[in-house]
Amino acid sequence: MRLRQVTLEDPGRHGGVVVVVDVLRAFTVAALALHAGARAIRCVRT
């Protein structure tokens, strides 16, 4: 899973919907990991 950071200079290059879906997917994975017993979530920007 990769999260992309979209800057204000090019808001349309990746599309807002894709970014929102990626962010929601990241939160879902984090919630599942915490529920499964993970003690910490590390966020990495790519």
Structure overview:
The chain has one helix spanning 16-35. The protein has 46 residues and is mainly alpha-helical. It has a domain at 20-45. The longest helix has 20 residues, at 16-35. The N and C termini lie close together (10 Å).
Characteristic terms for this protein:
mainly alpha; 46 residues
Describe the structure concisely.
This protein has 46 residues and is mostly helical. It contains one helix and no strands.
Report the strand count: 0
Query: How would you state the average pLDDT, rounded?
Result: 68
Poorly predicted runs are none
Judged by helices, strands and strand pairing, the structural class is: mainly alpha
Measured by DSSP, the beta-strand proportion falls in: under 5%
Categorize the overall geometry. Answer: flat
Share of helix, binned: 40-55%
Radius of gyration: 13 Å
Biggest β-sheet, characterized?
A: none
Write the layout of secondary structure elements.
Layout: H1 16-35
